[in-house]
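Working notes for the structural subgroup meeting. M.R. asked for a predicted model of this chain before we commit to crystallization trials. I am recording the input and output together here so anyone reviewing the notebook later can reproduce the run.

Input as submitted:
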Amino acid sequence: MYHLDAPDILLAATTGKSGSALVTCRRVFYMKTMLRKLQQAILCISLAATAAGCAKPVIQDIKTQAEADPKVRFSAMKTYAWAGGAGLVNDPQKLWTPPEFDIAAELKHLIDIEMRKRGWAEASNPDMLIAFLVVNDVQELKLIESERAGEVPDLVGVGEGALLIELMDAGTKHTIWLAAATAETQTGRSNELIQERLRFAVEKLFADLPK
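Returned structure, recorded in token form:
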């Protein structure tokens, strides 16, 4: 049973409304309040879902694959160095960046982060050499696979515009890990979105690097 409190009794006395009428008013007010809160919650959920839906196209076109030499114990590797010419990147198809964006510097930064996550340190007498490039001609990839890939299986369906990251044994100069990310042509992207795409691609590629 609903009981009137002191304010209700006072209001009833001054307005002439009965207790049952006040109870009804309070219940209506309560229901309207709860309905407004429910509508606000639904709106917040809808906005969050919309934001998530809008974020997907930023990276959903990026596809990755990676292959490693099954005989290599990556856990035994401790140090790395950048191979000569690793910072020379040409992206004529503009699949990753606009002309004014320094893709080489950004990739080197992102890859250094992933290497340090593995506990690998840059050194002058390294266990591994690392390089990256954006494929301008599929023959570049075929050259890597035929000349130094050794036991690394060939990548499939990698064409012009693919971002390649390569790890090589510093002693033999043979490829021990080769990874590629492909994407659709990008136009009108801000530098922040470009960085997000590159970060996603590099992180996803290194997630496939054997422990």
